[in-house]
Amino acid sequence: MIRSTIVMNRVGAVLLAGLGLGASSAMAQDTLNVLIANERSNTFYGMFLAEELGYWEDVGIKVNWLSSATTIPYVAFLSNGQADLVMFDAAQTLQAVDAGQDFKIIYEDMQFAPEAMYVAADSDITEIAQLKGQTIGLVSDRDRIIAQVALESAGLTIDDVDTVVLGEGGPTLANAFIRGTVAAVAGGATELATIQGAGVAIRNITPPEVAENPANSFAIRTDRIDELRNPVERFLLAWSKGMEAGRLDLQMSGAIMSEAVPEQWVTLEAGRQHLELAAMKLHEPLSDQRGALHPDMWARVQPVLVSVGEISKTHDPATFTDSSFIEAANQYNMDEIKADVAEWIANNQDRYNAMAQ
Questions:
Q1: Helix, strand, or coil here: 120?
Q2: Distance CA 87, CA 283 (A)
Q3: How would CATH label the architecture of 5-112+213-354?
Q4: Phi, psi angles (nearest 5°) of residue 218
Q5: Fewer CB within 10 Å, N or C, the chain?
Q6: Beta strands of the chain (E only): which ranges?
C-alpha cells in the first residue's frame, strides 16, 4: 500500500471539504458489512485497487466483505440487517420492489450487464433467434433469467429451447462447447474468463439493448439511510476512486488482480481479457458522474421482466431510487488518482513488468 504525501494531503482536501467531516471523525475507522455479486473477481477490480492504493484507509472505512457464495437470497441480508449495503442486479432489484421490500438503489456500479449469452467463437450461430430448438447451458439456475430475457428480445421464450445446468467449473463449461452438448451458455463475465482460461474461444451474441441495463447497483434499507449516510458516502468515494484508478493503467491493474484472484489468471491472456472487459466496458459510466442513476433505464428493463413472469407489474423508479449519495461519491480529483497510479508503478516495478510478458 502506498502512503505518499500526495495521499495524506488528499485526506484533508477530499474528506473534510467534500464530505463535511470534522478532523477527528475523518480518520475514524467505521466498519461496513457489504455483499456484492462476487467479492473474488476481476469484475470488481476497484475494491482491490482501493485497498492497494490506500483509499479505504484514506476514508476511514474497514469493509467486511460478506461471501457471495450463498444460497440465501441477497435481499434477506439487507432486510435482516446482516449487510449494510447489498449489490443487486436489475432483476433482483425489481423482484424485491415487487415483493414490497423497502430499500433504495443509491449507486449504479454497472450500466452494462456482465451476464450474457455466449457461443463458441467458431459457431455458425450469430444471433439469438438461431437458438430456437437448441440446448442452452446455464452456469447455475439463477442464470435462467439471462436466457429468458435474451430469448425474449428475439421473440422466443424459454420453452423454445432446452436448458441444462452445467455448474461453475471452467473445464466443465469449456467441455460443453468442445463436445457440442450445448449451443450457447448463459453466464457472467467470470464464466467468460473461466471458459477462455480452459482454452475455448467464445463470442458474445447478446443484443446491445439487452446488455445495456443497470446490471449491478448498491442498495440500502430506507430506514437506515440517515444512520449510515456518512460511512456509506465515504465507502462510495473510495469505491469510485478504485474503479477510476483501475481504468488508467491495465498493466498495473493486472499486476494487482493476478495476485488478488489468481484463479482467474490461469493464463495471462484470459485474465487480461476479463479485466479489460470489466474496466473498459462493464464499468464505463454512461454519464459524467460515476454511480449516477438512470431512471429511464430502470423503466425500460421492466416490461420484459413482466412478460417472462419475474415481476407482476412495472414500478415507478422514483419509488426505489435515491440519487442523494452521488455527489459525495464523485468528490475525487483525477489528477491525484493519476499521481497515485504513477507512484504505485514506480514503487512496484517487478510486479508491473511481470504483466508485460
A1: strand
A2: 14
A3: 3-Layer(aba) Sandwich (3.40)
A4: -85, 135
A5: C
A6: 30-35, 61-65, 85-88, 103-112, 116-120, 135-138, 162-165, 184-187, 202-204, 212-221
Question: What is the tens place of the pLDDT at every residue in 261-292?
Answer: 998 898 898 889 889 988 888 888 888 999 99
Q: Which helix (H) or strand (E) holds 236?
A: helix 225-248
Exposure pattern of 6-18 as b/e (b: 16+ CB <10 Å)?
ebeebbeebbeeb
Residue 151 has, within 13 A of its CA and on its CB side, a CA count of: 25
Task: Using alpha carbons, list the distances in angstroms from residue 150 to 36, 68, 131, 184, 214.
Answer: 24, 25, 10, 12, 15
Fold of 116-205: D-Maltodextrin-Binding Protein; domain 2 (3.40.190)
Residues of the chain by 3-state class (helix, strand, coil), percent to 5: 55, 15, 30
Residues 273 and 201 sit within 8 Å (Cβ to Cβ): no
SS3 80: coil
Each residue of 46-67: b (16+ CB within 10 Å) or e? bbbbbbbbbbbbbbbbebeebe
- pLDDT tens track for 138-184: 988 878 888 998 999 899 999 999 999 998 777 888 899 999 999 99
Q: How far is residue 193's CA from residue 202's CA, in Å, rounded to a whole number? A: 10
Quick one: 278 exposed, middle or buried, by C-beta within 10 A (0-12, 13-18, 19+)? buried
**Residue range(s) occupied by CATH 3.40.190.10 in the chain:** 5-112+213-354, 116-205
